Amino acid sequence: MWINSLTRYRLLLLPVSLTSFFSYSACTVTYLTIEPISASRSYNVFESGTNALVQNYRLKSDVIGEGCEIEVELSVENELNHLVSDSLQNLIFDWHSSNGYQRSGRWYTKLSSTEPDATFQLNYPSQQRIDAGSYFGRLQATIGDPDLNVKQASLDVSVSVPPTAKIQFYGLSQNHYDLDLGVLTTNKTIGYAPKLWIESNSGYRVSVESLNRGSLRHQSEDIRWDIGYRMYLDSQQIEITSPIAYWRSSQSTFGRPVSMEFVVGDVVDKPAGQYRDTLQISIEPELTALP
Predict the structure, then answer these.
(1) Are residues 50 and 97 in the same domain?
(2) Cα(first)–Cα(last) distance of the chain, in Å?
(3) Are residues 153 and 69 in the same domain?
(4) N or C: which end of the chain has fewer CB within 10 A?
(5) Where is the signal peptide (predicted)?
């Protein structure tokens, strides 16, 4: 004879009250903070190393409970792995830490009752072609499921990108160049001078200083035999008879070739010989772009 027996199980439901503490399973976290360790915040767009800027931070908490371990998500609010300027340009960084892993532009690290703190870095790779200015983001640390009302910590992060510019002869490595003008004739045009190569993350001005104030001087150094000449940058004449002549641009550029052209003045009744002038060419960014 078969006897059917029925075993009954009961499920006990216990209400849980939410307090000012966040409970992660059997663990409790009383606080969570992000603190800066290093104060560096300047990014040089022409830095040649791997990273032009490294910022160090400490994630601190108080994890209560024996053997407790929690995972913390680090992110930049509303963004992935970059800061944003007022002109909506992006300054990219890489997460780095000895503890954790990266996924979808965020960093995940673990804290525990025995190791409640962790350090991490924001590494900003060099050679990012961005304009001068201030770049901002809000660093955010989140515990637990993002769909829940979880404990968070945040810290405003900013990086200053100062205006910087550099100039060189296009395709050449040297800073000095001897330009042979050949046989001088009136109104002779010399258009084969090397171009200038300009890089600047803001508006800039090129300055030209002529040793002889826009004149080719005879080898005798007698100013009576000076031969005037005109200089053009990108087809625009600059006044090299002034102590310093300027050529300006209001636009940033990370690679602009600028042509140089010279036109010889009147050579009638000038003695034969060697004629020479020296030009000092330099560049500076517009400081109005200072963050």
Answers:
(1) yes
(2) 92
(3) yes
(4) N
(5) 1-25
In a domain, 6, yes or no: no
Is the residue at 11 inside a domain?
Answer: no
| 161, 189, 219 - which closes a domain | 161
What pLDDT, on a 0 to 100 scale, did the predictor assign at position 132?
Answer: 96
pTM exceeds 0.70, yes or no: yes
> The domain spanning residue 274 has which CATH number?
2.60.40
Q: Please indicate, yes or no, if residue 102 is contained in any of the structural domains.
A: yes
Q: Do 196 and 93 share a structural domain?
A: no
User: What is the chain written as a DSSP string?
Assistant: -------------------SSEEETTEEEEEEEEEE-----B--TT--SSEEEEEEEEEEEEEESTT-EEEEEEEETTSSSEEEETT--EEE-EEE-SS-EEETTEEEEEEESS--EEEEEEEEES-----SEEEEEEEEEEES-TTS---EEEEEEEEEE---EEEEETT---S--PPP--S--TT-EE--SPPEEEEESS-EEEEEEETTSSEEEETT--GGG-EEEEEEETTEEE-TTSSSEEEEESS-EEEEEE-EEEEE---TTPPSS-EE--EEEEEEE-GGG--
- pLDDT-based confidence at residue 13 (cuts at 50, 70, 90): very low
Q: Looking at the structure, do residues 120 and 155 belong to the same domain, yes or no?
A: yes
Domain match, 256 and 125 both? no
- Domain interval for residue 89: 22-161
pLDDT at 67: 81
Q: Say whether both 70 and 94 belong to one domain.
A: yes
With bands split at pLDDT 50, 70 and 90, how would you rate the model's confidence at 19? very low
